[in-house]
Amino acid sequence: MTKNIILVGVGGQGTILASKLLTTGLMEAGFDVKMSEIHGMSQRGGSVSSQVRYGKCVHSPVIEMGTADILVAFEKMEALRYTKYLKEDGKIVVNKFKVDPMPVLIGGAEYLEKEIDEEFEKLNADVIDAANKAVELGNAKVMNIILLGSLVKSMQLEHIDWENIIRENVKPKFIDINIKAFNEGMKLISKESLQEN
């Protein structure tokens, strides 16, 4: 059975790197994997999304609305843009992180943080603070690897050798911190959450 994963964020958050590590790990585990990326104005904090499909035989990289098993959002508002892709019992992992889009920055719109948070409660989303956890580890840029760890735990893909995937795909001086970040991300998903889903 094919599984569908959507990762969304804004430019500069490392969404695509996380997707590529995920795809590499799934392929090395023997799955047929298809990945597609959509970059908005990614250099300017625009929307970035990536779709990853894996299973025994996957024909298309495109995830249709209402069929995603999990949505992993690197930024809060981006999550809400993509909830329509989730299947009825799909999971949501949301980074407790806010990036003001251009309409908000120029005063043409408001970032409705309270309403967004209330929506996540209704959707029973796993809201994790990957940004602060990355800072605690000593490098804000590993936020994406923390989210990758949370995704792996949520999808119960821990049997794949992710440590080796990180070693082979990250610059040597960043390997240790990325492995730590990945493990911290897995810890942020509770057993209760896995049972609920």
Automatic annotation (TrEMBL):
Start and end residues of each Pyruvate/ketoisovalerate oxidoreductase catalytic domain: 11-186
| Protein keywords | Oxidoreductase, Pyruvate
InterPro entries in the record = IorB_Oxidoreductase, Pyrv/ketoisovalerate_OxRed_cat, Pyrv_flavodox_OxRed_cen
Query: Transmembrane segments in this chain: where?
Result: none
Alphabetical list of Pfam families matching this protein: POR
The record's section on SUPFAM superfamilies has: Pyruvate-ferredoxin oxidoreductase, PFOR, domain III
Query: In which domain of life is the source organism classified?
Result: Bacteria
Molecular function (Gene Ontology), one example: oxidoreductase activity, acting on the aldehyde or oxo group of donors
NCBIfam families xref list:
PRK06853.1-5 (NF005325)
The protein in question is named Indolepyruvate ferredoxin oxidoreductase beta subunit
